[in-house]
Design a protein that fits this description.
This protein is of the alpha+beta class. The chain has one domain. It has a two-stranded antiparallel sheet with strand order 1-4. The chain has a two-stranded antiparallel ribbon with strand order 2-3. Helix 2 packs across helix 4. The protein is globular and about 45 Å long. The two termini are 25 Å apart.
Length: 102
């Protein structure tokens, strides 16, 4: 089982770009098959990221107000439970961010 439980809109221009802030390759700007028509290419929009990478993203970006939009309806409850059980301010901040934005 994976932990890609936090979904964000990587196409939003508000907040720090997830890929840049976390030091990942720039898959956030990639194109892939469109949902509506798989014969067409569309820019990636909503993507579920690792809950632990999301907590680091918040930390490196400078807080909840400095990140891209969260797709609240797509957050997996397992992430919320994991953040609640984890020790450390980084995970408490992630839980608080989800609570405040969603």
């Amino acid at each position: 089982a994976g932990s890609h439980h936090i979904c964000i809109d990587v196409s939003t221009s508000t907040g720090g770009n997830f890929c840049e802030v976390t030091g990942q390759s720039d898959w956030c700007s990639a194109w892939g098959a469109c949902n509506e028509d798989s014969s067409q290419d569309c820019q990636i929009q909503n993507w579920c990221v690792c809950q632990w990478a999301f907590a680091s993203y918040l930390q490196y970006a400078g807080g909840c107000s400095k990140i891209q939009d969260i797709v609240c309806d797509s957050i997996n409850i397992h992430a919320v439970r994991a953040y609640a059980a984890a020790a450390g301010a980084k995970y408490r901040n992630a839980l608080d961010c989800l609570a405040s934005r969603c």
